[in-house]
Design a protein that fits this description.
The two termini are 34 Å apart. The protein is mainly alpha-helical and 323 residues long. It has 17 helices and no strands. The chain has helices at residues 18-21, 34-47, 51-64, 69-85, 89-102, 108-124, 128-144, 148-161, 164-181, 187-200, 204-221, 224-240, 244-261, 264-280, 284-301, 303-306, 308-322. It has a domain at 242-323: Serine Threonine Protein Phosphatase 5, Tetratricopeptide repeat (Alpha Horseshoe), CATH 1.25.40.
């Protein structure tokens, strides 16, 4: 599966699960205290990727929670997650070790958060099997303690780290439970991830159904960039379904929207997909032109370093059609 905040792409899904893994941490429902208020503040900063401010809020929370072990666990876990989100694995491990030193399942809110960060670290280091076990533990524990946001997050993460069958099972479960508990703001990422899983398994009809559903919730809860990617992905999956004329009605406006925002990633993807449509229709010259535009946008986005395999894919298509 699949960091910027919203790299949802089709064949080249380079989003680090993106919405899923980067989803907002959870404010607890306990009575307000100065320390918990700082946790809530940190969560809001984290959600907007203001990681320096988030880390300071979590540090303040820890300093204020001298007699509140659960909040200490939350603060230390989230300090680890801030480092992990910045790809500072050693920093993440250091903070998580501090959390582990005080973590106990006697503290539901703190323990659930700790498990969530522990599982993410396992996942980010490529240990999907052990990450899945941690997230299953998090799910069962959070379910027992009626921490809906936490067990929904666990289900969402198993839908990323699990086997292909588990991804479908837990992704579907997460969507169902988010709807049942009224946590509709979690559905953009959940539906998007499940759609991507179906697409990876070549079930494009089901993927299309879920991308459309994800788009509905992105337009309710996401910012402009999230809405852009949601629209683009509907166009992309229609391309995979070979519904080319319909796909173009989504890809053209997505490309124009991305141009206005200066979003090189979506421009690259939309141009590539439009190139494939033109190639399928026999317009090799038009296809090559679109692939060259795609290549330029990808290079501007830094794909030569971050995703050289995508650069190679586009160059190969140009070579094939130029023959």
């Amino acid at each position: 599966m699949n960091l910027p905040a919203f790299l949802f792409a089709g064949d080249y899904l380079i989003w680090i699960a993106g919405l899923a893994a980067l989803a907002i941490p959870f404010a607890t429902l306990r009575a307000s205290t100065p320390a918990l208020d700082k946790i809530v503040q940190g969560d809001k900063y984290f959600d907007t990727r203001a990681l320096v401010e988030a880390a300071q809020a979590y540090q303040d929370a820890f300093d204020l929670a001298a007699n509140d072990t659960s909040t200490q666990i939350e603060a230390l876990s989230q300090l680890s997650r801030c480092r992990l989100t910045q790809n500072d694995f050693e920093g993440a491990k250091s903070w998580l070790a501090k959390a582990e030193a005080v973590a106990s399942d006697k503290y539901p809110a703190g323990w659930s958060r700790y498990l969530g960060v522990k599982g993410r670290l396992e996942w980010r280091e490529g240990r999907n099997d052990s990450a899945t076990l941690v997230f299953k533990q998090m799910y069962e524990y959070s379910k027992k303690h009626e921490l809906a946001e936490h067990y929904l997050d666990a289900a969402r993460m198993i839908a990323i780290t699990g086997t292909p069958a588990e991804q479908i099972e837990w992704g579907s479960l997460g969507v169902k439970e988010a709807e049942a508990t009224g946590h509709l703001d979690m559905l953009p990422s959940m539906c998007n991830n499940l759609a991507s899983t179906y697409a990876d398994q070549n079930n494009y009809e089901k993927a299309h159904e879920l991308y459309v559903k994800a788009r509905e919730y992105h337009w309710r809860f996401s910012g402009e960039t999230g809405k852009l990617y949601a629209d683009y992905q509907v166009g992309w999956i229609l391309t995979k379904l070979k519904r080319y004329d319909e796909a173009m009605t989504w890809l053209r406006p997505s490309l124009a929207w991305a141009e206005r925002l200066g979003n090189e990633d979506v421009q690259g993807q939309a141009c590539f997909d439009m190139g494939e449509i033109l190639a399928a229709k026999g317009d090799k010259r038009g296809a090559v032109d679109m692939f060259k535009r795609s290549l330029s946008h990808y290079k501007n986005e830094g794909y030569m370093q971050s995703a050289p395999e995508i650069i190679a894919k586009v160059e190969k298509r140009i070579e094939e059609l130029a023959e």
